[in-house]
Amino acid sequence: MNEALSTLADSALHTRRAHRAGVKLVEDFTRNSKGILDEWTTYSDAHTDLDGWPEDDHAYSRRQQQRNADTAALFEPIHGWVGRLLLATAEVQLASLPTAAVQPRWGYQIGVLRDSLDQLAALEDEWTRTVDDLGPGEGPGTSAFEAALATHHAESWTHLDAWTTHGPVLHEINTAARQSSSPLVPSPVAAPAPGLRSPSRR
């Protein structure tokens, strides 16, 4: 019995540590992705005319593709069970908080993050099928692969940007849960089974 309790305690501690690490990953992502977005905004403002049209379509497109790829790379550690763990824990924490400690926007923001993660999961599955359909000579570095990858990143960017915008809510909810005067603040929920596969990237 003592061994079983010890195993359970170790599992709970591991899950809490994973949750703290996941929240830090999202903090790093939001900070760095905002930096990428700020750099893109500066570039776009400097390379478009008064009507918003690019001065050089090719250069502008290449720079936009780089923005998309850099943002996708930053989000990579959050894909799959990490993102699911963070959202599930935030929902448990949110439900346990006193009404006075809850910001009305939090529930909406968690919903946006969950929908975006679902869309990213679907896009990752689609990307895997796309890679499987490419010919044996159309791997990384070929025009076919790079065009498909650019399309994948472009389709993913809006959902990644949602995490840039709303990701900080996970830290806010976690902080509120830790500061709550409730007698018990729930531990992070157990991580679900991995739902996303790592995409094929360079």
What does this molecule look like?
The structure is a single chain. With 202 residues, this protein is an all-alpha fold. The chain is built from six helices and no strands. It has helices at 2-46, 57-75, 81-96, 105-133, 143-166, 168-179. α3 (81-96) crosses α6 (168-179) and α4 (105-133) packs antiparallel against α5. The longest helix is centred in the first third of the chain and has 45 residues, at 2-46. The model is unreliable at 1-12 and 193-202 (pLDDT under 50).
Oligomeric assembly: single chain
Beginning-to-end CA distance, first to last residue: 49 Å
Strand content: under 5%
Order of helices and strands: HHHHHH
Query: Which segments are poorly predicted (pLDDT under 50) over 5 or more consecutive residues?
Result: 1-12, 193-202
Largest sheet: none
Structural class: mainly alpha
